[in-house]
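User: Second chain of the day. Same drill as before.
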Amino acid sequence: MFSEFIEPGVPHVVFWLFVGLAIIIQGISKSGFAGGAGILSLPLMMLVMPVNLVAATLLPLLILCDFNAIYHHRRNKDWEKILRIYIPAIVGIVLGALVWWWVGRQGVERYSLPIKRFVGVIAILFAFYIVAREASMAWVERHRPGPVAAWISGVSAGFTSTIAHAAGPIVSLYMFAQGMGKSLFVGTVAWTFTLINLTKLPFYISVGLVDFHVLAFDALLVPLIPIGSYLGHWMHFRVSESAFNRVIMALTLIAGIQLVLNVNLIHLLLVRLFG
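Assistant: Same format as last time:
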């Protein structure tokens, strides 16, 4: 029924393992534990799914996660700071949607490898960001961004989010530089991503990325989100967040390199193990 979601040659057990792990990691990340972990989901899924269906599948699930986040932080928000980055993000979203429209018009297969390599490069950069996050936060705290930085951050966040759901570090660094307390920071970031992802949805529908078949596939994956959220809360008291982030960094780096080189070492290994 969902055979078009599986890349040719990928065994079903490998497909469901990668996709299931990707969604659980999103749940863990959205729980507040290891906030940067969600960056692994997209490259992990791109190793076993067509690139356009990865972006389409993730967006409705991310919106559900966003609704859960803003419910818990419904009072923790600063609309002035949200709008500073959200308004220019709309420009980036439109640019990203035009890219997806062009890809759909020319044929996804033709641009599949360039998109994978683009996502691979982002994954590699963000893997190093995870390692250097504390240094990055310290730097932006000393250099509070002005209106120009807000526009650059917003457009970049909108574009990378539309192409690869990968605007987390951009938004987080910008908001951290605003000098908010922890609760207000977390809530403001959650509301920002809710607006960005909701704005992306009609564009995804209009260019043919999200349709009924994608939503039916998402319905199978929805139960994995609360599982990930539960694991995130459980790990919060039992697992070192820095150690977990190092594991995520290593996996993101491996997945990113594989996308850039257009190989799937993990897939090949699992095929050897499971036949």
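Residues 79-106 form the longest helix (28 residues).

User: Great, on to the next one.
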